[in-house]
Write a structure and sequence with these properties.
nine-stranded mixed beta sheet, 9 strands, about 30% helix, globular
Length: about 260
């Protein structure tokens, strides 16, 4: 499961590539090992390496879902025989292109609108073996209109056909309905819950909304510190290094979730 020793050597800093991509910059760190534990959980639930699309959401904004999307994609891409893709499905507050220092378009919205082809929107990244599709431009169309078009089902089928793992960043579940639509085209959703920030009521509401839409919840990812530190909860420099807690709750286990 772990990459060869030579792969653990720290790479040079890539201009524009967010330093919150811990598995890329700190390949032998504790945080990276915790991401590998999550990867192992995903593999154990998919021993035959069937192609999977997994959406990442949270209850409210700024919980860490975009950072988690990229870090999970990065850690999956370590396994070189897998084809891995990350997709920015947050048309309102897209951030992945900035974090990867990649063009913001054309992207997924352009494909759904028929303004771009699949080949035109897939980008390579500085992270080996990791491809990326930005959010693109809705050109005034609503996210719901684009995501419910017949082109959306075709686009997600192609993602499923061509990649072993596609990780989709989506808006928070309690703010808009996008994840309810995207989730139905995925194999499941991982919900990000942040210590000392996510209110219990908001987390429960997010889970209920996903359940009402019959979307499988793969699990909940608990991130954050054991105690708040100077009120810092932003996405800025060193975000990933602030994780002291990183635990995965499998909602398929008996009870409220088995901690791993």
């Amino acid at each position: 499961e772990k990459p060869p020793v030579e792969a653990l050597e720290a790479p040079a800093v890539v201009e524009g590539l967010a330093e919150s991509l811990v598995p890329f910059y700190e390949r032998s760190s504790l945080v990276t090992e915790q991401y590998r534990s999550l990867r192992t959980r995903l593999h154990s639930a998919n021993p035959n390496y069937e192609h999977r699309i997994v959406a990442i959401t949270s209850a409210v904004p700024k919980e860490g879902k975009s950072v988690t999307t990229l870090n999970l994609g990065c850690i999956l891409a370590e396994i070189r025989h897998l084809r891995v893709l990350v997709v920015d499905g947050d048309f309102r507050r897209s951030s992945l292109a900035h974090m990867l220092n990649q063009p913001t378009g054309p992207g997924l919205a352009d494909v759904l609108a028929g303004d771009a082809t699949f080949e035109q929107v897939v980008q390579s990244t500085p992270i080996p073996n990791l491809n990326f599709i930005p959010a693109g431009s809705t050109k005034g169309r609503s996210a719901a209109e684009l995501l419910t078009a017949s082109s959306a089902q075709a686009a997600f089928k192609r993602l499923r056909d061509e990649y072993h793992y596609t990780i989709v960043d989506t808006p928070p579940a309690t703010t808009v309905t996008d994840v309810g639509i995207i989730g139905q085209m995925c194999h499941g959703v991982i919900v990000i819950v942040r210590l000392h920030r996510t209110h219990e009521a908001a987390a429960k509401r997010a889970v209920r909304l996903l359940q009402v839409n019959n979307i499988p919840i793969v699990g909940c990812l608990l991130v954050g510190r054991d105690a708040p530190a100077s009120g810092y909860y932003g996405y800025g420099y060193g975000y990933g290094y602030r994780y002291n807690y990183y635990r995965y709750y499998d909602t398929n286990s008996e009870g409220d979730g088995k901690k791993n």
